[in-house]
Design a protein that fits this description.
Elements: E1 11-15, H1 16-20, H2 31-43, E2 50-55, E3 68-72, H3 77-87, E4 93-96, H4 100-106, E5 112-114
Parallel strand pairs: 1-2, 1-4, 2-3, 4-5
Length: 133
């Protein structure tokens, strides 16, 4: 039985390619493996947010795990993130990306934006979702 998050649970939409690419740790040699490591790090985060990891390209098809739904974009990952943000209008939604153009596309939908350091394993400690403005 799948438990669906309620409308009060914040949703965190993670731009997998952008976050993986934010640290020069050799991810380009194994894009799929890098996305799986990010997924696993996200699953280990404490907190109550719903996490959606959007992957594209070589990372498509990695499995979801408890705590992280993996969404394989059929085309552009950015376009899929915008679609997901639109699906969550009226609910607290944070898009994690450093991509300025993507940030400009999701903000009119009411999404907040945070940089990759908010979810990378070496990122700063603190709230799971950035504080509301």
């Amino acid at each position: 039985m799948t438990v669906l998050p309620d409308a009060d649970t914040p949703v965190l939409i993670v731009d997998g390619a952008n976050v993986v690419g934010s640290v020069p740790d050799g991810w380009w040699r194994d894009r799929r493996g890098a996305a799986e490591r990010l997924r696993d790090a996200l699953a280990a985060r404490p907190g109550e947010e719903e996490i959606i990891l959007v992957v594209e390209g070589a990372a498509r098809g990695i499995a979801s795990v408890p705590g992280v739904r993996v969404d394989s974009a059929p085309g552009s990952g950015d376009d899929r993130i915008v679609e997901l943000a639109a699906e969550h209008v009226g609910r607290r939604c944070v898009v994690v990306t450093a991509d300025r153009e993507l940030r400009e596309r999701v903000r009119p939908l009411g999404a907040e934006c945070a940089g990759p350091r908010h979810v990378r394993p070496h990122g700063p400690p603190g709230p799971q979702v950035p504080p509301a403005p």
